[in-house]
Amino acid sequence: MNSVRLFGFAALLALATTASATSFVVTTDAVVGAIGATSDATSDVTSSLGDDKVVLAARDDAASFVASQGHIRGVRLEAALLHIRQQAPNLVADDLQLAQAILSL
What span, in angstroms and rounded, lies between the C-alpha atoms of 23 and 45? Predict the structure, then answer.
């Protein structure tokens, strides 16, 4: 009886480990996919706006915004964010992500 319990416990442990690993992989794939989609969309927009005067003028304001974790919002950054959202209305990115993208230009 003791060996049957040990075998049952080992089988249960193996199933639980597999289920945990599978759910971890699915969760990780979903998060990475969402980040990748946002990153691709942001990079597409920033590559097309890389020579835009409104966006380039907002780099200092974007740096202040990122450094203050969104507390300092300059006028040039606000204009650039509005301009970007008008140019790409389907873009799914928050202000911090766009400010970081502006800094990468």
Answer: 33
Nearest to 46 by CA among 87, 90, 94: 87
User: How do residues 16-49 score in pLDDT, each as one tens digit?
Assistant: 655 554 555 555 555 555 555 555 555 555 556 6
Task: Please name the amino acid found at residue 104.
Answer: S
Burial 29-67 (b: 16+ CB within 10 A, else e): eeeeeeeeeeeebbeebbeebeebeebeebbebbbebbe
The range of the structural domain enclosing residue 95 comes to 2-103
Tokens linked to 23: 């759910």
Work out how many domains the chain is built from and give that number.
1
Q: Model-level pTM?
A: 0.55
Q: How many CB atoms lie within 10 A of CB 97?
A: 16
Contact indicator for 61, 77 with CB cutoff of 8 Å: yes
Amino acid of residue 102? I
